[in-house]
Amino acid sequence: MTHALFSPFTIAGISHHTASVADMESVRFPDEEAFLTRAGDWFKGVILLQTCNRIEIMVHGNADLLGTFLESEGRAGWQMWKDADALSHLLDLAAGLDSMVIGEDQILGQLRKSLSLSESMSVADPLITLCINKAIHAGSEARRISGINRGAVSIGSAAVLLAEEQLGSLAGRHILVLGTGEMGVLVTQALAAKQLSAIYVANRTFDRAQCLAEKVHGTAVPMADLYRYLTMSDVIICCTAAPHPVIKVQEVMEALKGRSWPLDHSRRPLIIVDIAQPRDVEEDVGKIPGVCLYTIDDLRKVNDDTAQFRKEAAEKVREFLDQELLQFIRLFNRKAADELLATLHSWAEQIRIRERDRALSRLSGCDDRIRDVTDDLTRVLTRKLLTDVTLTIRTCAERGEMKIAEDLVGAITRGENICSRTYD
Predict the structure, then answer these.
(1) 250, 282, 299: which is the final residue of a domain?
(2) Among 52, 238, 239, 396, the one annotated catalytic
(3) N or C, which end of the chain has less CB nearby within 10 Å?
(4) Are 258 and 271 in a shared domain?
(5) Which residues are within 8 A (CB) of 107 and not within 5 positions of it... i.e. 6 or more apart?
(6) Which of 222, 229, 275 lies closest to 252 in space, CA to CA?
(7) Cα–Cα distances in Å, from 138 out to 118, 131, 133?
């Protein structure tokens, strides 16, 4: 079996491996639904995966077309994976091998969410759906057999570790979490065991802030009171989905005027960890005296005690994924052959209906029972006559022998001569 694919599959990506937060912000798509609508006019299927440290566009289409599309979108600097390499990259993504924190689990939920959005927008064709579901299944199995996610920290908990590293301990501290999405939940869960004096949770929707705050025995904060609670906090961890900064320089400077140690005029230090994408905090906030601003780029430096274990587990995962890739290619090609088989079966159905109607026209005065029997007979005969050639075409597809499969359909439906043709 070759590694050739029966139909083109391409991924364009940019991630923390090669890009800074600013670089990723410059190519991010703020309106995902609008992007998918535009991409759906170019490709049979498309998935957009956007997380805090990566953007991946997966399409049922070729790399040249995807490159042209991204140029039309004014986006540059993408790494491209084509066909079998794209399938391999997708497996790495789902298994957590390509994550900033090796083995993290959040990528699986993010892939499911991306597929769900594409399905709701009617831009997820059967081939794209197969790819994402297969990758999720393989990623889950990779974690089960290797334990690579044991002890692994998420980006959210890495942000908490970074804050703890800067302060020495979070015990007795006041922490403000801005955002109640998936990352906000991970952050508050990581904070819950830190013996804090207080956890404040702020969100644009106050009900969601209340719901999350109750789970960790914290206090929900209205966005209108954000800067008042900023003044009272030692650490702020920002992880909203806002398309623009929500913490701004002038407001922070004003809020910090009354922030000082008792009996001392020096300001208490304020640590802000911004793990949102796009960023929640204006960049110049980090220049304010007494404020230490950290972003996703700084999380790369977080010391992870389980790194060596996960490195060893990653070797097991790689062996597993190498085998999974072979099965993935077979499944992909088998599904990709459906379009070619649809051409064959459509051709056969047209002939069946034509000949059935000719036969019925010769049976003058036939009743409904005869019509039904004739229809069933022609349908069964057509299906049985196509059984062997359908199996042969699927087998060719699974092996990556696209030309043979296409020539077989051409010989049957158009009478093309394949006797003189040679195949590698």
Answers:
(1) 299
(2) 52
(3) C
(4) yes
(5) 51, 93, 94, 96, 99, 139
(6) 229
(7) 21, 11, 9
Decide: 355 and 133 in contact? Cβ < 8 Å: no
> Are 165 and 225 contained in the same domain?
yes
State whether residue 34 is helix, strand or coil.
helix
Active site residue 52: yes
pLDDT band at 38 (very low <50, low <70, confident <90, very high): very high
Total domain count for the chain? Answer: 3
- Name the β-bridge partners of 81: 11
Number of H helices, E strands in the chain: 15, 10
Q: What is the pLDDT of residues 92-108, one digit of tens each?
A: 999 999 988 788 888 99
| Helical residues (DSSP H) of 286-367, grouped into ranges | 296-299, 307-362
Whether residue 282 sits in one domain with residue 160: yes
Tokens of 250: 């002038």
Q: What is the pTM of this model?
A: 0.73
Quick one: 253 and 278 in the same domain? yes
Residues shown for the chain: 424
Range of the domain at 200: 155-299
Residue 334: both structure tokens together: 């088998």
Would you tell me the crossing angle of helices 106-120 and 83-95 to the nearest 10 degrees?
120
Supply the DSSP string of 39-71, one letter for each residue: HHTT-S-EEEEEETTEEEEEESS-HHHHHHHHH
Q: Residues 321, 349: one domain?
A: no
